[in-house]
């Protein structure tokens, strides 16, 4: 590495490109738009406490505190494991990709109750504040409204309520983690769980275990691809979306490791994650991971952008032909999978011209009650294969507006945290989460990411982890123990 750096430093072309990038970088950082973006105003606890959500919660909390005190329940719950909110948040956050959906819902419900119990037992404890919390709650409220006003309440109720519960878990998790040690342990366990999922996928590929759908591969175009792994998520595209979030976190753990044993562990985890991603043969996930990697390295050091062409050429010589053939087919309308999605998007857009205001309600059953009347070429689909179109379909244009606003606030929060952060570990974690969400949104353009409820749960958990990483340096246990 030292030799390579010396060669690059001696190159006139490299020095010229570096100087040019630094000049553009300085102009960019000094621009008014960037300064406005990195120094948000009006983000304070007071702004959140003035919201209707906070006022409603205060009334409910005071009533619950009164009941708790009247019934003298403190004797019953003193020292109870149910007061350990972090523990009950830890379990679903880590085990989500390994457990059935209903088991995750059960653990989520216990986490909700544990946080409520902690807040009722201690009147002085306040809900932790984050810029994204009120937008998470607002999105959940709009989504719930879309559920209640569905064209078929029976068809949408279960799906809508499950989604709302998983969305609101982000607020519970943000309040459940109170120390830096808890956050670091949670991040470590999340990456290890992802590595376990990846190892299972690799074993699945070796022994050809698991269900395979003919719809997953166009056998006429990709005769060399005979098996795509799905691991515990039952669909290779859903597994790929999950891995987009996990790979940057694994990279951050590798770069912050302090011993050779730790580096070997995290290197192995990253290798398993990346290999499993290849074996999904999910082009959208590969594209999302490529964008996530680009965002990771640009945020880490913008000058690394100069190495992107070299890295892409290197990948061409390293990756197997089946992977290159699959990736380069992106956008090829002769591929059955690509044309299938395009026709679905066209049909969904035609449908939303009539249902854009409130949507038709969440759930596959509600979607299929309306979509067939607008479908092209008689194509039947369980969803729109695009996250943003599906949000409008589920809960109307208001839900999409809130979701986009939430993403804007999230990225602004993470970039502002990066701008002021001095701690190396915290910076890397913030970069990883930002890159993961960015890559996930790229993949969301080609598929409905929340079709799998476990992926939906992991995404909202990931947003909460990002908000926690943004304030990692201010959490108790300010210095990481070696």
List the helices and strands and how they pair.
Elements: H1 2-10, H2 12-29, H3 32-38, H4 45-49, H5 52-70, H6 74-77, H7 85-95, H8 101-121, H9 133-148, H10 153-176, H11 180-207, H12 236-255, H13 260-280, H14 283-300, H15 308-318, H16 321-328, H17 336-355, H18 364-370, H19 387-395, H20 397-420, H21 424-444, H22 453-470
Helix pairs in contact: 5-8, 7-8, 7-10, 7-11, 8-10, 9-10, 9-20, 10-22, 11-12, 11-13, 12-13, 12-14, 12-21, 12-22, 14-21, 17-19, 19-20, 20-21, 20-22, 21-22
Rg from alpha-carbon coordinates: 23 Å
Query: Count of DSSP helices?
Result: 22
Biggest beta sheet attributes: none
Oligomer: single chain
Low-confidence stretches: 478-482
Percentage of residues in strands: under 5%
Straight-line distance between termini: 26 Å
Shape: globular
Overall pLDDT level: 86
Total number of β-strand segments?
A: 0
**Pairing-aware structural class of the strands and helices?**
mainly alpha
Helix content: over 70%
Highlighted features:
single chain, 482 residues, mainly alpha
Structure report:
- The protein has 482 residues and is mostly helical.
- The protein is built from 22 helices and no strands.
- It has helices at 2-10, 12-29, 32-38, 45-49, 52-70, 74-77, 85-95, 101-121, 133-148, 153-176, 180-207, 236-255, 260-280, 283-300, 308-318, 321-328, 336-355, 364-370, 387-395, 397-420, 424-444, 453-470.
- Helix 11 crosses helix 13 (260-280) and helix 20 (397-420) packs antiparallel against helix 21 (424-444).
- The chain is globular and about 75 Å long.
């Amino acid at each position: 590495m030292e030799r390579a750096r010396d060669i690059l430093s001696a190159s006139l072309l490299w020095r010229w490109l570096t100087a040019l990038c630094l000049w553009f970088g300085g102009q960019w950082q000094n621009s008014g738009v960037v300064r406005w973006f990195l120094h948000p105003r009006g983000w304070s606890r007071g702004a959140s406490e003035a919201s209707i959500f906070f006022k409603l919660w205060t009334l409910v909390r005071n009533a619950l505190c009164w009941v708790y005190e009247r019934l003298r329940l403190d004797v019953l719950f003193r020292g109870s494991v149910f007061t350990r909110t972090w523990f009950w948040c830890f379990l679903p956050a880590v085990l989500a990709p390994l457990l059935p959906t209903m088991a995750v819902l059960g653990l989520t419900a216990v986490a909700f109750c544990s946080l409520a119990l902690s807040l009722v037992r201690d009147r002085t404890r306040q809900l932790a504040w984050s810029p994204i919390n009120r937008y998470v709650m607002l999105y959940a409220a709009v989504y719930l409204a879309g559920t209640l006003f569905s064209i078929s309440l029976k068809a949408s109720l279960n799906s809508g309520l499950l989604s709302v519960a998983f969305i609101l878990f982000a607020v519970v998790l943000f309040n459940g983690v109170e120390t830096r040690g808890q956050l670091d342990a949670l991040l470590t366990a999340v990456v290890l769980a992802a590595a376990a999922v990846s190892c299972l996928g690799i074993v699945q590929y070796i022994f050809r275990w698991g269900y395979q759908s003919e719809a997953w591969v166009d056998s006429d175009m990709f005769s060399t691809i005979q098996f795509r792994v799905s691991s515990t998520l039952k669909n290779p595209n859903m597994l790929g979306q999950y891995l987009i979030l996990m790979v940057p976190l694994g990279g951050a753990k590798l770069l912050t490791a302090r011993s050779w044993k730790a580096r070997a562990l995290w290197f192995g985890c990253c290798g398993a994650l990346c290999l499993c991603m290849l074996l999904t043969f999910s082009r959208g996930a590969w594209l999302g991971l490529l964008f996530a990697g680009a965002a990771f390295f640009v945020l880490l050091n913008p000058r690394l952008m100069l190495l992107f062409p070299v890295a892409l050429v290197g990948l061409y010589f390293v990756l197997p032909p089946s992977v290159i053939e699959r990736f380069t087919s992106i956008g090829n309308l002769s591929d059955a999978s690509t044309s299938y999605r395009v026709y679905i998007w066209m049909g969904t857009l035609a449908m939303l011209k009539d249902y854009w205001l409130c949507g038709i309600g969440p759930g596959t059953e509600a979607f299929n009650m309306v979509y067939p009347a607008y479908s092209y070429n008689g194509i039947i689909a369980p969803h729109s294969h695009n996250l943003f179109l599906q949000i409008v379909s589920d809960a109307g244009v208001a839900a999409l507006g809130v979701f986009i606003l939430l993403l804007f606030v999230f990225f602004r929060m993470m970039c502002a945290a990066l701008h002021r952060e001095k701690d190396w570990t915290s910076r890397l974690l913030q970069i990883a989460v930002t890159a993961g969400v960015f890559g996930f949104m790229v993949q969301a353009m080609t598929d409905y990411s929340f079709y799998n409820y476990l992926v939906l749960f992991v995404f909202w958990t990931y947003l909460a982890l990002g908000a926690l990483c943004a304030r990692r340096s201010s959490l108790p246990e300010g210095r990481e123990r070696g």
